[in-house]
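Side project, low priority. Logging it here so it doesn't get lost.
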Amino acid sequence: MATSTTNNLHCITCGKPPATFMCRGCSKDFCMRHANEHRQELVKQMDENVIYFYDQLRQNFDEQMEKSSDHPLMKQIDQWEENSIEKIHQIANDARKQLLNIIEKHMDKLKNDLEYLRQELKKARDDEHFFENDLNKWMIKLNELKNDLIIPQTININYDNNTTPFISKIIIKETTDMLNERFEQSFGDIIISDNGTIATHNTSSYYASVRGKCEYTSGKHQIRFQIKHLSNESWAFFGICYKDTTATGCGSIGKTGYGFSGQDNVWHHGSSKKEFNGYKSEFEINDIIELLINCDQRTISLTNQRTHKTHSLDVDITNCPLPWKLTVGLYFSPGDSICILN
């Protein structure tokens, strides 16, 4: 709440002047009495909606943690095993182990997200520092976590129909929902903003980069970017690197880096080759860039929607082993900016 010095303002609740307080959450003016009532109503909403929803979600999470082997996705495996009888018992057992490992990783991530949210809610509640927009934000986050708990978006079960003419071999694949890709780590003078979707070169002219939060181990994954701002040097990097690659200074692409950059450079294991396989960068402001990461074929491809040109690059997994992480770099000019498109 912020004190207003304008005596002509009227309270939004009773309509009487002066309105001595303005709520920073809803931008409405209140008199002293109704400012207190408004604050109490926010506290009530915090307790009855956000905190209550969190407690329910946490209870559901704890219940699923105790019976991970009864996860809904396991029923698909059980049905497949029943239809295939004894011929595929060993394959089913192997699939269960793989799925359980993935579910455990998924649950660990949810556990960390819930704990982080718990701390954020507790601090906001203890400090009584929250407004309508905060409540809305928390409810959206809780719903996202609830949906991810019930139906994980990053786990798929696929079937290999080429094994035999009458039995489909079951394959557990952990794929990445592209809507969840975000910039997470920064190296050098670069700023991550807008919920991890924008990377902006800060005040220096040195090389800097960001890495995504997702790890890519199998399947195909397409990530779309927009170049929000780019200097006359037109230098940006789109590619991948091994997830644990050390990144320091100008080498923040890393020794395992593969990708495409400005000035017509293609990068293999951290070193650039100009115009490799006829590559031309041709980056411009507002260009939509698509990066296709194909873990199964061990390749990456870059497509510029404006020029309709696609360039592909083989990845040597002895130099850049799985899992891979998205890497985006900027050089030369402050203010250059890349955005991940949902």
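Brief comment: The helical segments are 32-66, 72-84, 89-127, 132-150.
Revisit when time allows.
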